[in-house]
Task: structure prediction
Amino acid sequence: MRQKQTLIRLSALLLAATTVLAACGNNNNSANNTSEGTAAPDAAAAGNTPEVKKVSFTIGYASGDPATKQAIADTVKAFMEANPNITVKDLSETSSSAYLDWLKTKDAVGEFPDLVEMRDTQVFADAGKIVELPSDLLELFKDPPQVDGKVWNAPMQVNVPQGIIYSKKAYADAGITELPKTYDEFLQIQEKLKTSGITPLVVGGKDIFHMGFWINKFLIDDVYSKDPDWNSKRTAKTVSFTDPNVVQAMTDYKELFTKYVDKGWLSTADNQTASFLVSGKAAQLYSGTWMFSQIKEADPSFDFGFYAIPDREGKVNVVGLASPAGWSLSAEAAKDADKTAAIEQFIRFFFQKDNYSKYLASINGIPSTKEEITYETSEQMQVALDLITDPNVTKSLAINNWWGDNLIPPQFRNWYYKLMQELVAKDGDVTDYMKQADNEYDNQVKANQM
Amino acid sequence: MSANLVKAEQTLAVANPKRKRKWQSYALLFILPSFLIYTLFVIVPTAGSIYLSFTSWDGISEDIRYIGFANFVEILQSTRVHNALKNTLVMTISLVVLENVAAILLAVLVDKVRWFKNLFRSVFYFPTLLSGVVMGFVWAMILNYNFGVFNQMLDAVGLGSWMVDWLGSPKYAMLAIILSTVWKGAGYYMIIYLAGLQGIPAELNEAASIDGAGGWKQFRHITFPLLAGSMTVCMVLSMISALKIFDQIAVMTDGGPGFETETLTYIIYKVGFGELRQGFGTALAMVLFLLILLVTLIQVKFLRKREVQM
Result:
């Protein structure tokens, strides 16, 4: 009798423990949103329509830029309205972290998105986290870049050039009538703006990705436009960050930031920069074409222009080469045929002429598809398009967007941008800081080879 | 079951070996669920972390390679880690001292105040209820160079030349984090000190007063020594929370400007997640674990000794 009682108590205890653990398990499953494989209740109840499988998948993308976030959210909403049997769960969050940090954290907690905007393609492909783009989707795109001979991404757009977005009023008030033809003329403009009493430049240095705009402008002018294989040479230690061209690039960066950038740049977020410009707190912003929508939204009457900053010899070099980035299918989602089909359906929907043109118009992007996409472009966007089509303009990439032998250690970009923040904040010696960059680069290469 | 019944049951158990076994099996049954959960969620991951600290795992691939002590050698050589360790120690010492001093002062004040006693207690305790993230956002807004209230106040009173990017300056960013954390944490320790103060017999202060001791002397020779027990608890708690500080740094400075406010906990997150070096990050976590263990043991030993002496 006593044994029986003990058994009953033990069973009750185990049942309680199982219930607790089962509850945890259920919660986890719902978070992962696997395809359910059940018939839509309405369809089943009606009995006269074919059964449609309910499928759901998760999506994640870089949402630091409000215009991009809104454009993708709108497309997702339109897709779900057009396909009621498919649920897309948007995991994207606006945070102060870099996109890679966010993605890595999602992976660590088992929430790696089924469909993900991939920027560090080679890293995640090597880790087996993403799969090749389904071959039937390749027909949609114009020469998508390959990594290890395979296409991993549906490119969301072609890389757009970055340049100076300036207030026409501030330029007029400072007596600036012509745009610069050389970098020295650009510096003279900064001096004129400063003298006129306005802060020449606003920088959203609180967001680490924003630092890349300026740092890469100087690196492209002095390094990548002349030697696109510089990264692979750096990995092989045949070039150095202490070489005169890199030191010159970072000296120019430091000088510009010290003299002409708003003093609060390290605590200014990227999404605050548009308001600085339209409110007249600063005269210029160095960013990409996606900012045009934000600026117009902040003040539709704000009159602004756009141009690429020339280098010292008067040549124009911009970000504009294709790089392996865009929508990628996670390896986990690819195991589920229904989910894969739903994701393919979404990708086709995203790049459909009507939807894609709306997306591109919201972010002022350049299409990556074979099909010609048109949308009404602004005067500023036309300048960007002219830069892309001008054969005299050198197209290049940011330090971290190269791949293959030119891939830098994935952790180096953010570290380097932070080092460059410190260089300005502590008024450091450029050569000393470049020595630190060399050491860290070598350490990271070594660490990745272990 | 009341304490007496438990005692009686135990006494019977000692007298009767069969009852003793039964009692032990019941005890095991009660312990088992907690033990299983603790083992599953704490012991197993901790043991796994020890192994990971000897690998070069990037945190995303299936490939986990054993690299011996390479991570620990790198920790010894890395200037970034040394800087983070220095920042951690500076922040810990500053926070332990400032939080406890502020908490004792607040506790004495709210203990002595005649009117609105509960209001003052609530007001000083309120910041404790905020999460580190919310507190970080609030202070980041207050200290913003262009839009922050603090700089606008300086400007309004004619001290515009003192305006600084408080969170973007290598000189002030650390100070800003420390002071805002003291603002958040002092109220919590104030409650513990207040409980300690209320446990001090009033006769002691009355007797000292009759003997001619002033307020400061009474505090120094009666109140402060008798707060030793509360102080042990508060110092250990504030030290552990200071060593683990993360949220405020993530929100207010992201470890910057540059690497100026990176601490060990923050660098663990940055290298582990942002820089795809989970193995190295885990090795750093092991170092932090040993550091907290060591400092806690020393602190408890020292403060306990002081309690006995008092």
About this structure: Chain B touches chain A through 46 residues (CB under 8 Å). DSSP finds 14 helices and no strands in chain B. Chain B has two domains: 3-52, 78-309. The radius of gyration of chain B is 25 Å.
